[in-house]
Each structure stands twice: as structure tokens, then as C-alpha cells.
Write a structure and sequence with these properties.
Number of strands: 11
Helix content: 25-40%
Distance between the termini: 54 Å
Shape: globular
Bound molecules: flavin-adenine dinucleotide
């Protein structure tokens, strides 16, 4: 991180970015995030010691091959709001959205096997009729159901959860490995951030490995965590490890942040693969799709609920 002067310069750069309008960022020349980092006018120790590992973590992209515009937007989000996780786990957000809808609107655990504008075939409930279809899956599932949709390359991510008898002394900070001295890109004592995620009375350490995981995953991660936290990890217990080969759609330059969500009247698609590869991007694309549907149904957004229900 460098000394106080370096930190002040970094703080000033982040404060400037926080107030930069998105339109100005989208008008900047587009290159890879890695190439853009070296032209930010910050000392290399700030770039290599903090910005590079932070962006690697935020984008799940160890090579920083992401479009510099997407990287700047992501860094701007960090500068404006810092880091957070939803209390109770990431399922909390969709649960809150679903709870705001009339009971019975959302059915979960239903596998769609075929879909078109007028009907959806499901494994569990046979065929369901519809007036319009909005497909809100990941990119590969969307292309399986609607052949012809673009499938981007992906950044694989592996997340490991360990429990420990006592918390390492880092508090709720996120540890970034700027030295890339092992497989872990970033790690934190999650029970210090959100105690509701941890097994009762235990410390929960959540760590992320980017790219293809090593064959001896738990052993090499455990050794790396011992070095990062400066404490033995032999008595830590691996609760689970999730690997997702299609975790995050890659966004190399040039990246289209506003891929069409309206394929034709009655057929729509949304998800992170239509916007930026983040929860926020997925939500933006969902809002664009909702506006397109309302437009095709002849309803302006913000109309009374009864009118919306009638149209549905
Ligand atoms: C480990 C990991 C960590 C991440 N960390 C962050 C982070 O810190 N910040 C961030 O902004 N983003 C993060 N992301 C990315 C973020 O989770 C995604 O960008 C976001 O969830 C995409 O939302 P989505 O609605 O497009 O797709 P999804 O969240 O993938 O939702 C698609 C849904 O469609 C369902 N589905 C698929 N096929 C079918 C079918 N045939 N029938 C019925 N349902 C189907 C799936 O079950 C799934 O529920 C992370 C991703 C992973 C994997």
C-alpha cells in the first residue's frame, strides 16, 4: 500500500472516480484493465500492492483481461460503496424481491426444458402457457433454450469454506494476496463480517481461488491460508468447496454493456451476460427487460398495480 503519501494519492484517485459520471467512463478508450492500470499515474507499488489484486478479486479475472471500461465502472462502485455481502447469504436478495410479489407468483425448483413465446415445458409440471417469455438464466442455459444466443467465455471460480476453533486476528478485513504466493486470490473471516453465515459458535473463513483450481486444492489452500493469516491451519475443518466453471462471464474489450434484452415482441432475455458480469449488471438487464415487456404490453412503468396484474 506504500506510505501515507501513496495512500493519500490513492484516496484522492478513488474519490475522483466515485464522482465521475458513468457516461464519462464509457467514453474513455477501451483496452484491457491490465494495460489501463499502468496509465493511471499512480506508483507501481500502489497498483501492484492494492489496485491489481482488488480488481482481480472484484472481476474474478486473474489476468485482468477485462475491458478497462468495465473495470473502471467496477472500481467506481467500490469507491462509492466499498465492499459488502448480503446478510444471511446471497440468496437473501432474490428472497426479498420475491417476498414483495403477490403470494404464488414465483415457483422455485422448476426445471425448464423448452421455451418459446407462448409456452414453457417443465420437468415437474408439464407445459405452461404464457403471453410473453423472459428467460433469466445464465448464458449457457439461455443458449440451450434459445439456440443462437451468444455464449461468452467464462472465468471459473472456486469458493472454500473452512471453520476454525478461534478467529485469526484480522477482524472483518478482506485479505488480498498481492504476491500471488499461492492459489488463494482473496479470503476473509466471514463470521466477523456476517455471523449468521457461520455454524453456531464457530469461526467461518471463506476463501476464493480463481481460474482452474490445483489438484490438491484443500492442502495447498490450507498452506496458503496459514501464510496469509500467520497462524497454523492444520486444525481447520473444510466445510465445503464449490467450483463453478462458468461463474463469471468474461468481458474482454470491446464489451457491449447493453446487449439487447428484447429479442422480439413477446420474447426477452436478461442476466449478467446481457450487461456487466455482476449482480448489479444482472439487475440492470432485468430492469431493461421489464421496461421492454411493459412497453410491448402498452403499459408505462409506474402504472397502478391492478393494471399491471390485468396485463399479466
Ligand atoms: C462464486 C461466485 C462469486 C461471485 N461473487 C460476486 C460478487 O462478489 N459480486 C458480484 O456482483 N457478482 C458476483 N458473482 C457473479 C454474480 O453471482 C452473477 O453475475 C449473478 O448472480 C448473475 O445473475 P443472473 O440472474 O444473471 O444469473 P444467476 O444468478 O446464475 O441465476 C440464473 C438462475 O437460472 C436458473 N436456471 C438455469 N437454467 C434453468 C432452467 N433450465 N430452468 C429453470 N431455471 C434455470 C439457475 O438455477 C439460476 O437460479 C459471483 C459469482 C460466483 C459464482
Amino acid at each position: 500500500m506504500g506510505g501515507p503519501i501513496d495512500q493519500a494519492r490513492l484516496g484522492a484517485a478513488l474519490a475522483r472516480l466515485a464522482t465521475t459520471p458513468a457516461s464519462r467512463i464509457l467514453a474513455r478508450p477501451e483496452q484491457t484493465a491490465l494495460a489501463a492500470l499502468s496509465s493511471r499515474g499512480l506508483p507501481s507499488r500502489t497498483v501492484n500492492g492494492f489496485l491489481r489484486p482488488l480488481l482481480t478479486a472484484l472481476l474474478s479475472d486473474p489476468g485482468l483481461t477485462t475491458s478497462s471500461r468495465c473495470a473502471d465502472l467496477t472500481l467506481r462502485g467500490y469507491a462509492r460503496g466499498r465492499l459488502c455481502v448480503p446478510s444471511g447469504g446471497s440468496a437473501t436478495l432474490p428472497e426479498l424481491l420475491a417476498a414483495a410479489l403477490p403470494p404464488g407468483t414465483v415457483r422455485t425448483g422448476v426445471h425448464v426444458t423448452a421455451a418459446d413465446i407462448t409456452s414453457v415445458r417443465t420437468k415437474e409440471h408439464g407445459e405452461l402457457g404464457c403471453r410473453s417469455l423472459l428467460l433469466a438464466t445464465g448464458a449457457s442455459a439461455a443458449a440451450e433454450l434459445l439456440p443462437g444466443l451468444r455464449v461468452p467465455p467464462f472465468h471459473p471460480v472456486t469458493v472454500l469454506h473452512h471453520t476454525a476453533p478461534a478467529p485469526p486476528p484480522t477482524g472483518a478485513s478482506l485479505l488480498l494476496d498481492a504476491d500471488r504466493s499461492g492459489p488463494v486470490a482473496h479470503t476473509c473471516v466471514m463470521s466477523e463480517v456476517d455471523p449468521s453465515r457461520a455454524p453456531h459458535g464457530r469461526t467461518l473463513i471463506t476463501s476464493t481461488v480463481l481460474g482452474t483450481p490445483p489438484p490438491d486444492l484443500d492442502r495447498s489452500v490450507r498452506a496458503h491460508l496459514a501464510a496469509l493469516y500467520g497462524t497454523p491451519t492444520d486444525d481447520w475443518e473444510l466445510l465445503c468447496a464449490h467450483h463453478d466453471p462458468e461463474a463469471v462471464p468474461a468481458m474482454p474489450p470491446p464489451h457491449d454493456l447493453r446487449r439487447p434484452v428484447r429479442l422480439l415482441a413477446g420474447l426477452y432475455v436478461c442476466g449478467d451476460h446481457r450487461d456487466t458480469s455482476t449482480v448489479q449488471g444482472a439487475l440492470f438487464s432485468g430492469r431493461r427487460a421489464a421496461h421492454a415487456i411493459l412497453g410491448d404490453l402498452g403499459i408505462r412503468p409506474g402504472r397502478p398495480e391492478a393494471e399491471l396484474r390485468e396485463a399479466a
